[in-house]
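User: Second chain of the day. Same drill as before.
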Amino acid sequence: MEKLSHLEPRQVWKYFEEICQVPRPSKKEDKIIQYLMDFAKERNLESRKDRAGNMLIKKPATAGKEKLKTVVLQSHVDMVGEKNKGTQHNFETDPIKPYIDGDWVKAEGTTLGADDGIGIAAQLALLDSSEIPHGPIECLFTVDEETGLTGAFALESGFFDGKILLNLDSEDWGELFIGCAGGIDTTAVFDFDREAVPDDHQGFLIQVTGLNGGHSGDEIHKGLGNALKVVNRFLWYTTDQYDLRISRFEGGRARNAIPREAEAHITIHEEDVDNLKKYFEQFEADIKNELKVTEPNLKLTLEKADMPAYVIDEDTQHDMVNALYGCPHGVHAWSQEIEDLVETSTNLAAIKLQKNDSFFVTTSQRSSVDSAKHDIASMVESVFRLGNAKVNHSEGYPGWQPNTDSEIMKITRDSYKSLFNADPEVKAIHAGLECGLFLQKYPYLDMISFGPTIKGAHTPEEAISIETTKEFWDLLVDVIQKIPSNQASKANRV
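Assistant: Same format as last time:
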């Protein structure tokens, strides 16, 4: 396998390659935290860990830079674990296998973890450097960002000292983010009773694969297919027309990923089999036509399967299929203030068969308007309540209100223009960032978020641009060196 460490900037890619060898799925970050602790100890850098597992590593200013403002560099250490069907990989024990594909770095059959591994790598490269002049630096590494931002929620006031924060968790190079959406998760549980498989039934498996999937914040507006919606649409029509029963329905994995794959194990009366197959042919043609632009690799299959041990009761089947069909998914509203910004959206993310004879459905809502966030979550709740499901909401997380007078925004924007002879876009993002939570506990923080181009985050198609990683590093180093002194700020206020 070709090494990444010959790529530029070499130190960043060196550490990214090392990070790929350390398993770090959400809620299982012990190995990466130990790696960071060892890194700090080997370099005699002050470090600390809070009760949630968040890490802070501090590096003193280089000679002559002691009076500059302290800067906090922040990234999250966990990654979304998604793999292609048929790929053998245990995210808790196995390393990620990165490889170079032209101007991109990808992973073999799994998510790459560039979200936010490249942020970690940049922090470590800066901490390890003896050649880059800088003021006091604090590197903050948060845990469990991907499944609920629990590390940021648990972060205590006073854990770090800096009043400027650079969030290194953005995925669109050339864009500087000064605001983000807030979010909330809504889950539904459908309890069912087991019933015997009806006589004269045959077993079938309906599957959807080959969808792009994608980040439920960054890519919710792209019209990508939702595997759960496709399978459930087939079930909705066929359960209404035929003597069809459901035994199992599963798909999707992460709350913040648009589901790529789904399948349902069903039974149908033998007299209806031919009609089911004919309907499937038409259904397949219709779905492929509807998604031909966004999902050219979509694959639908209907194959004969073994008979299941049981089917779910008809009332639950009716309630669940109808609720999933009615559950909204996608963009709900566009911002009236910022052009081309999704204001409010919802993602039907996953359904899983539980051991206690229930189906657990995960959805996620986002909005840059807090009241709208709760409104769309209530809308999702109402649909599931009509289906007699048990519904719960997460605590949710706040958005990050843009500050157009931000000092660090102006520094970063000017640095970008000086380096690349172009103006960056300064904007808000529909995805959720931890910045909103930081602002609750550190209301004085001046923040900005930027990063290299990453496409396909949260999917096995995840890839990071080599060229923009170099530019991202150049910008980070330049911004670090342009941080003003505390004295300058005081003088400006006089």
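Residues 201 and 349 are 31 Å apart (CA to CA).

User: Great, on to the next one.
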